[in-house]
């Protein structure tokens, strides 16, 4: 990174009319007394404008003036990005006087509002990452909170840099932003609020879906070797337009959730919890008044079953409790929790006897009629569980029964604990989840699902040794278990055991050849191992699956970036260029793809100026990568900018003295500049790091 701040936003372009549409439309209404204002982007990557604008658009391009239809009360105002036409503002209805204004005045307004849009874009850009900033996020939150009742969530993601100086901190934050942009794509706008805090507003996503997305993001960041990452999530609800402070309240809720996430482990998340969430939690606390009645029932009893019955539908009356009281009889203890739930005490009955009794009881309830109900059963004695644990165990069994649908029954066992562990895991409480999984393994040591769940939770907590043990035990029980093979491969990579990881993933591939996440990471590993033919085959397969169904996994921009690398290494430059172009279109801040695309443009003689621009952008975005400086220097050399090439290649070798190709190129340029002494020092230096580097040896010998 040469200059760590980006103060220039660049000219207004067509995609900005989509990215900043909320603020731009609000500004349009401030300028024009119209009824509706619509932005129509115009650009190579945009959809064609509506056919009804075809004639008017031709007039605008020919005359560089707005087009007015006074009869229809419609105004087409050009939006300019410098000298380029990047879109239209279509104003309709409202005050008729607007559509009778002189064309000169409207043209002046066109340029003024274009300038206003540019200034808004400038004010919405974060100077560190080039992403949108908190000002833009606040505007989007205000618009979202006032919108109709569509699910949306706000997430604050913390990727805090722990570095010795500001330069490394900024580099860390920029890398995080680029990584997140590759994963999310343009459909999920990303904001940087400062200090490594990223804001994400997910439209059409409820809390449960947001937790799943958050888990994928955290896992991705861990695999990219970030030290920690935490996520706080809150639901965006519509509010009264006359109220103030809604965006601040939402940000405060997300921030509080983020603070809780920090306490849960190095890679963890937390959702904002409301009083209603606590009351509806599947493992909510049983009221003390109910517990007192239950204690009285099983005091002194050595064998019994406790059943939690719950109506599958919301109650409309107290009919459910009346049915229970009628059929339970005086010899069975019935404790009502509310009009939907009740505990039933079955003295002297173990699990099997309880099942038989409850089957008969269900039949009698059905005869009476009414809504269906589900049951969760916990028995005593059962392993080392105390009597006080039974009400909660009943709730866990009831959650287990929910997997079988309405009108179901489950007896508390190891599977119940696996399910309860998953509930806590999905909420981001990894420590509680591990506690449930451990208890489940005590009940059933050979449960492969629990072993896999334990392994994944331990990975999130950076307990790699424990995670390795869980996956290895799972594979001892099921050698072809896909999830154990897949996850153990990542642990081997973290321990610099690439051959072992490759072997595990090839075994997983034999189990499932249509798993995009596996294909993506296997293809990436093949590239790192210089097995480019296999890498291209696997990545092309992955790319095809993602294009067919992007919901089934895989990260499209990451896949095409690595597909480009495989094709580049195989000398298939045309395919590589196409792949890098797709990667850059999805993430314009992908420094690696920009740099490699620039080099290929230069090599294939597709425009040296474009090549220089792309490589220059790469070093601006991520100047800490020696390879970016090498490619920039290479392109500068091809452009006959010898001094620029010397500076770039020198920076490359400063960052990584083992870059033999950069040293050789720098030496050759110095020789061409009649500086053999300097070239000699470069060759000697690289040979100190790479004594067997034959080209450097030959170049040094030629100077002797």
Structure at a glance:
Strand 2 and strand 3 (74-81) form a beta hairpin. This protein is α+β, with helices and mostly antiparallel strands and 704 residues long.
Top keywords for this entry?
Alpha-Beta Plaits, single chain, 704 residues, five-stranded mixed beta sheet, flat, alpha+beta, Beta-Lactamase, 14 strands, 30 helices
Explain this structure to me?
The chain is of the alpha+beta class and 704 residues long. Among the domains are: 16-123, GAF domain (Beta-Lactamase), CATH 3.30.450.40; 134-279, Reverse transcriptase/Diguanylate cyclase domain (Alpha-Beta Plaits, 2-Layer Sandwich); 288-412, Alpha-Beta Plaits (2-Layer Sandwich), CATH 3.30.70; 597-704, Tetratricopeptide repeat domain (Serine Threonine Protein Phosphatase 5, Tetratricopeptide repeat), CATH 1.25.40. A 5-stranded mixed β-sheet has the order 6-7-5-8-9, with helices on both faces. The protein has a 5-stranded mixed β-sheet with strand order 11-12-10-13-14, with helices on both faces. Helix 23 (573-586) packs antiparallel against helix 24 (591-603). The radius of gyration is 32 Å and the shape is flat. 44% of the residues are buried.
């Amino acid at each position: 990174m040469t200059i760590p701040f980006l103060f220039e936003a660049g000219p207004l372009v067509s995609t900005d009319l989509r990215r900043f549409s909320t603020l731009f439309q609000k500004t349009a209404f401030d300028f024009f007394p119209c009824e509706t204002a619509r932005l129509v982007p115009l650009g190579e990557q945009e959809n064609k404008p509506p056919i009804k604008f075809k004639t008017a658009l031709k007039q605008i391009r020919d005359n560089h003036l707005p087009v007015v239809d006074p009869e229809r009360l419609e105004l087409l105002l050009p939006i300019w990005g410098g000298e380029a036409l990047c879109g239209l503002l279509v104003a309709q209805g409202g005050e008729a006087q607007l559509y009778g204004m002189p064309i000169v005045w409207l043209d002046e307004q066109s340029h003024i509002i274009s300038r206003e849009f540019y200034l808004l874009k400038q004010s919405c850009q974060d100077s560190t990452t080039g992403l949108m900033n908190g000002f833009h996020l606040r505007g989007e939150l205000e618009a979202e909170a006032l919108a109709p009742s569509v699910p949306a969530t706000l997430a604050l993601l913390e990727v805090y840099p722990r570095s010795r100086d500001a330069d490394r901190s900024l580099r860390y934050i920029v890398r995080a932003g680029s990584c997140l942009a590759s994963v999310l794509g343009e459909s999920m706008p990303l904001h940087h609020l400062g200090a490594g805090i990223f804001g994400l507003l997910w439209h059409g996503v409820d809390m449960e879906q947001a937790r799943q997305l958050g888990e994928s993001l955290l896992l991705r960041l861990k695999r990219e070797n970030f030290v920690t990452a935490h996520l706080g999530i809150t639901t965006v609800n519509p509010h009264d337009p006359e109220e103030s402070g809604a965006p601040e309240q939402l940000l405060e809720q997300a921030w509080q959730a983020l603070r809780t996430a920090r306490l849960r482990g190095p890679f963890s998340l937390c959702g904002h919890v409301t009083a209603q969430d606590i009351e509806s939690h599947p493992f909510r606390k049983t009221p003390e008044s109910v517990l007192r009645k239950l204690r009285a029932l099983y005091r002194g009893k050595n064998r019994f079953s406790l059943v939690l019955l719950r109506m599958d539908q919301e109650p409309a009356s107290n009919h459910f409790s009346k049915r229970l009281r009628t059929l339970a009889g005086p010899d069975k203890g019935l404790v009502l929790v509310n009009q939907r739930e009740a505990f039933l005490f079955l003295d002297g009955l173990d699990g099997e006897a309880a099942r038989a009794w409850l089957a008969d009881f269900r039949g009698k309830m059905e005869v009476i009629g009414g809504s269906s109900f589900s049951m969760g059963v916990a028995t005593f004695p059962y392993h080392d569980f105390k009597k006080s644990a039974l009400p909660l165990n009943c709730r866990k069994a009831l959650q287990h029964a929910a997997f079988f649908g309405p009108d179901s029954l489950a007896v508390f066992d190891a599977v119940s604990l696996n399910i309860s562990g998953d509930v806590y895991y999905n909420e981001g409480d990894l420590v509680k989840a591990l506690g449930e999984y451990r208890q489940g393994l005590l009940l059933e040591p050979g449960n492969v699902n629990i072993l896999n769940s334990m392994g994944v939770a331990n990975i999130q907590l950076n307990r790699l040794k424990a995670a390795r043990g869980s996956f290895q035990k799972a594979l001892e029980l099921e050698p072809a278990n896909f999830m154990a093979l897949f996850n153990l491969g990542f642990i081997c990579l973290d321990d610099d055991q690439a051959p072992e990881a490759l072997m595990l993933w090839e075994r997983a591939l034999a189990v499932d050849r249509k798993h995009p996440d596996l294909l993506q990471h296997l293809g990436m590993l093949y590239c790192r191992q210089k097995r480019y033919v296999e890498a291209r085959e696997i990545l092309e397969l992955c790319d095809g699956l993602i294009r067919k169904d992007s919901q089934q996994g895989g990260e499209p921009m990451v896949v095409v970036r690595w597909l480009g690398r495989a094709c580049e290494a195989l000398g298939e430059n045309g395919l590589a260029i196409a792949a890098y172009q797709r990667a850059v279109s999805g993430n314009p801040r992908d420094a690696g793809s920009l740099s490699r695309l620039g080099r290929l443009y230069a090599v294939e003689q597709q425009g040296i100026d474009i090549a220089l621009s792309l490589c220059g952008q790469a070093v601006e975005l991520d100047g800490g990568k020696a390879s970016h400086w090498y490619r920039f220097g290479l392109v500068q050399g091809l452009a006959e900018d010898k001094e620029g090439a010397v500076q770039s290649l020198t920076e490359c070798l400063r960052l990584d003295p083992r870059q033999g190709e950069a040293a050789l190129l720098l030496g050759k340029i110095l020789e061409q500049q009649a500086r053999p002494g300097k070239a000699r020092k470069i060759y000697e230096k690289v040979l100190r790091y790479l004594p067997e580097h034959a080209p450097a040896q030959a170049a040094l010998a030629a100077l002797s």
